[in-house]
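Bench log. Compound arrived from synthesis this morning; before running ITC I wanted a structural hypothesis for how adenosine-5'-diphosphate sits in the protein. Inputs:
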Amino acid sequence: MLTLETSIEFLKGIGPERAKFIKNVLGLSTVEDFLTFYPLRYIDKSKIHKVGDLTEDADAEIQLKGRITEIQEVGYGQGKKRMTAKFRDASGTLELVWFRYSKWMKEQIPSNQEIFIFGKINYFNGSYSMAHPEIEIDEKKALSGTLMPIYPGSEKLAKRGLNNKFFQTVLADIVKNLPSIIQENLPDALMKKLKIIGRMHAFYHIHFPKDLAHFDHASRRLKFEEAFFFQLGYGLKKQHHKASVPGNPFPKVGVNFKSFYDHFLPFELTNAQKRVLKEIRTDMKKPVQMNRLLQGDVGSGKTMVALLSMLIALDNGFQSCIMAPTEILSQQHFNSIQELLENTDIKVRLLTGSTKKAARKIIHDELLSGELSILVGTHAVLEDIVKFKNLGLAIIDEQHRFGVAQRARLWAKNRIPPHILVMTATPIPRTLAMSFYSDLDVSVIDEMPVGRKAIITAHRREKDRLYVFRFAKEEIEKGRQIYFVYPLIEESETLDYKNLLENFGHIVEFFEGKNVTMLHGRMKPDEKEVAMQYFASGKSEIMVATTVIEVGVNVPNASVMIIESAERFGLSQLHQLRGRVGRGAEQSYCILMTSDKLTKESRTRIKTMTETNDGFKISEVDMQLRGPGDISGTQQSGVVDFKKLDLRTDGKIIKAAKNAVEHLLKSDPHLEQPENGDLRNYYSKQYKGKNKWSRIS
Ligand code: ADP
Ligand code: MG
């Protein structure tokens, strides 16, 4: 008897030899593998196309209705002949060609009568043709054709007889057995509610859809199932985390928070900041470790949310730390936090790789005694020697630069692990966030502080350079500062450096009398620091840099960002870079310099940048262009291993699955109800342990 585990070797027409070959080429070895080897596309014979509607890129097999006329044999080459004919419908004419044919065939061709032809359309030199069309006289037969599955194949496979026909035949055999091999895995009530068809029918109609509607239902069901069990995995893990990882409850908001909020807050919080703060506060009240991701576009004001959260920790008698991926960033956090807390007696210190030994010693001592309330730093904070009296909250800025292992070291810093807040300015498309971060609670700052002027972004080419430089000069005359950013060519650091130096020279020459600072990856941390400070303090008007300045750097007076060879940057990187300007009260500009020749993709990237400042929109386009696998971090997390689900287009289904899982876990957290039995069995057999989830801390 056939089961899902049966080796394909035992299927009709396969045998051990072919089974081995199929396994090697396609990685399929069981009946289940074959069932989930889904067709790439389907041929639709239910539809009749018109010659007049054909388009150049119509590289498809289609059906047309019309008449064949002018059948003739044309000689070519050494006595070879081919047969041609015209095919006409009311909208136009198409050429038919036969390279191989017999006299008998020629006589059989029904000319001058209404018939149907089916085949692949070729476009060449302004005209369309079809070679070896299938011809059907009977209208009923022509239109009865269901959607015919076309499987992903290759020449290599076809040569061994493993062509489309083969897959169709094997799958036709398999689907005959569906009733005995496929068990439902979703509860009845859920399927009814969401109008999801049964599992068995889904497998049937994904391979042999009766019509488009059946295909749609089958496809939706299989996608939903994938999304559902994926979410269930994360949901169960999250639930387990909440039940088993204790946290220090911060029940109160006290004097530190209140007096800062009332007296020293330099601006009114945006509604989004308030909402997010409330979410964090609600989490931290509980005796359960918080694991929250704070997403907010560049400039949305995440630092203030971080600071206020740390003040709550302090009010409850706990220390906090905030870490950034680079020296420059942690220095900036330190500066701004220290400035904000200037009139309080809250102690803040900075710890980085370049902190001197004596200063380190003081930090270590003050951390242990509890005298130090807030530690700002880089990875240096993670070192084992850095011990806290009672670390209650750890904040990680720009999360994607920290590895999982490093984050894990934070846990060890307190007996009861600290609450974790991860902040990122890399907007993640909604569908990805729903999947990728399903084990985290997510807060989003989706609103910019008021009074911010939208950055004006323009695309310029080499021929406009003089104009661009003059514009930059004018802005400098108005008192602004500007950035020039050059791409990194990773293969050759030396070339990069040379490139940067050369351009640096040109800029110094053109902007004679101005101070030009340079920042690049080859500089030592303290050199970078000096350069950055020099620019930040306004002593230098121009910063020429590689992407080192990408994340977080804050110089409000800098209002022009000129990105050279902008076509070489990815969308999210361009957006991050642009976020360096638009931080002050002045109108800011981002100028994307490119060469004249652009690929279609880089044109889309540049155009997107000039059209929107919205990081979430940009991340959506980015995902459409590059696919979800290339969005930072998703590959290793296994989010993109879906067979049917497409994160780019299936947002609705993912959302529905997420809701369904939330509902399920609320009503039956341990999947103990009898109506969830099938689901539980399926999950523990198929999915348990398969989610390559990455714990955030
Ligand atoms: P990011 O989210 O990119 O880390 P920052 O926290 O650096 O953003 O904030 C960007 C700038 O906006 C800072 O200069 C900060 O002082 C300012 N800012 C933050 N929140 C507000 C607000 N509610 N109103 C006005 N300015 C704000
Ligand atoms: Mg920031």
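What the model suggests: Residues 302-303, 397, 552 surround magnesium ion (ligand 2) (CB under 6 Å). Residues 74 and 80 are 8 Å apart (CA to CA).
ITC booked for Thursday regardless.
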